């Protein structure tokens, strides 16, 4: 049986989204519900897939099928395509399975040519209307099908209005419209070097092809990547007989939502324009009227529309976004879909629909996009102020939120500037490193010239909930002169700039921000998510403040404390450097003894905040050179303190240099070379646990000591023996003890491959999917951003594997690690603490492979809670 590629609206239904796309399925459903829908047909998403398989051509049998259905449409409407007597005109619109706003514009009035327009004019007794429709068609076809600039045609209209001394399009006469048609056709010919196509069948095929082609335009590819839509879905095309809103004062067109998409308020919300078509409503040429005013203008139409809106909402169990046209007093529904909404509106609508008995709590939980919650957790720009501002550049939206502050070019300058002026600061760096941590913490936002979504700046900023725009290739930073150039503007130290971490836009001016608000609906929905989810949600937190923030957002434990950041404060970096530069173990132990009380204090702070909830602390991970001084003056200072010459210190720094530090002397390899570091950290962790337990006898503090980067069970066993010996020694010394666990990160592929062996030593695993991705894929997490863009463009990758887990490859390692680990130790506790822990589709994967928890940065905790609940509903386990 040959495949069917075209369906009449009356042949489809709302469940056929995959084949008919969202718009097509809903048009079919509205038709089935007996609503006034101009009839038409849908060319399926499979036809789009075929178009690409067939080398971007429409196969003859599909073309034939399209024309067979066109004939049926002619019979249904009693009109004929291309006929002068009683012409059928159609609209052509894209419609993918998921709505992709702005992906492709609509083409209206298709089927007009020099003869047909005359027929339409005679038939309607309205020459102005006929030629207005025709000039719009030429304009839309030129833009959408031939990609000619819209502005060219707009300019011709503006010139005409100026010549006639009128302000609005509606004031142009029939003769003016006629003249516009010839001017537009001439412009088309000049740009395309051929006549505007007059054969309606050629126009139709051109438009359908343009829709298929639009599936792969850069806007669509970008939108899909941001919204996890696979490119294999394709788009459908809807060909619908025209209803005209531009037939005079009893005609009009509008868009409306069943509830307010900005606030969620339950009230019909929308706009319409009389004597208008298509984009006029949103184009802002004439100010539209509110939907309430339709009640005065056309009371019957309003009542009918309001009733349909209510019925549609009840039918779809969700807020609807509808387009309608009124043709000479008669209402037509052109489309309906679940409306896009702000995060705040999404929460209110979900809660209200539960209260109204329209949906279950599970359905409410599925209704809110976890990623959208980000917007509720960070300061935002004042919308009016943002509208008036113009970006000077843009880069990766690495950490959401809005930031406005004075520019500082180093972490130290940022700290100083805030101390001296009290003004907010935005830190601008080529790239950041752990040294910058303090400056990053005090800044409102961070802008970097290099690095991707998992660069140091991006990871740390997300962890702190600080806005970050990363990897701005266009920026030219002159650190010595303390200025940067971007978008033709020069910004000096102390000048105000603003960053939008949600869009990646950079503004060379101050834009007012407003704080985030969390309404009661947010808490209610999160409560439902918590009842439903099976994954635990932990957080990656290195400070008591971060831990507290995560608890406020609902975290149930700490899945990763990275201890390296604790060694960068002014009081810490010196003993740390002394420790690294030591020539003997004795010297090293002396320096470590200085660090011990500080580390203990760090952990006490964290245990205090966590009230006995699980806390996983990782032993030192980064290569040691990251802690060493770079500035000459710092080198001289530390040399002086240690009784060494600057040359000797420099020699040590040189000897610690690594060509590939990410794969070098780091992780548990440090503990193997310098066991005394692991000893100090173990002691600090356990002393802190003992001290805080004594203070709070009711809390059951069981620290989880985590060994990073293990790949061989013997190396893990070795480091574990240091931990256990240190613990036993300490417990003997102080005469009291605490329970503790020793586990490891699974972040070297070999650890996943030999997880059954690793589990003989490890009491828990935490998958470090940042390193696991880097080492499984074989590219650097800091540099991959530079070439991944090309990979997206060429469709070799659809997603950033550092943001969304690569299920087939890296995911297989995780799955293997889970199974092998449980084989050896059935009750082994399994989590993940890479950046993927806060990514909704990755969270779903981790739920499916049976992890016990995910751990993510504090500001992603609500996102992960909701994503975990959605996963539990979709994939019960
Ligand atoms: C990881 O590798 O996934 C991880 C969490 O550790 P880090 O990012 O600190 O290397
Ligand atoms: Mg790691």
Brief synopsis:
This protein is of the alpha/beta class and 877 residues long.
Descriptive report:
It is a single chain. The two termini are 39 Å apart. The model has no long low-confidence stretch (mean pLDDT 93). Helix 4 (114-124) runs antiparallel to helix 5 (127-144) and helix 6 (150-164) packs antiparallel against helix 7. The longest helix has 26 residues, at 585-610. Among the domains are: 243-341, 2-Layer Sandwich (D-amino Acid Aminotransferase, Chain A, domain 1); 379-514, 3-Layer(bba) Sandwich (Glucose Oxidase, domain 1); 533-622 and 668-874, TIM Barrel; 624-657, no CATH class. It is of the alpha/beta class and 877 residues long. It is elongated, with a radius of gyration of 32 Å. 47% of the residues lie in helices and 17% in strands. An 8-stranded mixed β-sheet has the order 14-24-23-16-17-18-19-15. The structure holds phosphoenolpyruvate and magnesium ion. Magnesium ion binds at residues 747, 768, 770-771.
